[in-house]
Design a protein that fits this description.
Elements lengths: L5 H18 L4 H18 L4 H21 L4
Helix pairs in contact: 1-2, 1-3, 2-3
């Protein structure tokens, strides 16, 4: 399975958090953008549930960050 670049996942997670905070304002535009981000997170992580998508995206970002840190020259 293809996996999204960690930077893309980080940006999607950031946008998701930002839009969730604005979702209480109940604007159609915010709701539509949130739905788009949720869909993209699900597609990017191969899941069908936003909670699972968020967990998977965070795990992929965490693993990539650890990999970069672990392979950095001393």
């Amino acid at each position: 399975m293809l996996s999204a670049h960690p930077a893309v996942l980080e940006e999607l997670l950031r946008r998701y958090d930002e839009l969730r905070a604005k979702h209480a304002e109940d604007h159609d535009e915010v709701r539509r953008r949130l739905e788009d981000v949720c869909y993209t997170l699900c597609v990017s992580t191969g899941t069908r549930d936003i909670a699972k998508a968020i967990d998977a995206a965070r795990e992929q970002v965490r693993r990539s960050s650890f990999g970069r840190w672990a392979s950095a020259p001393a």
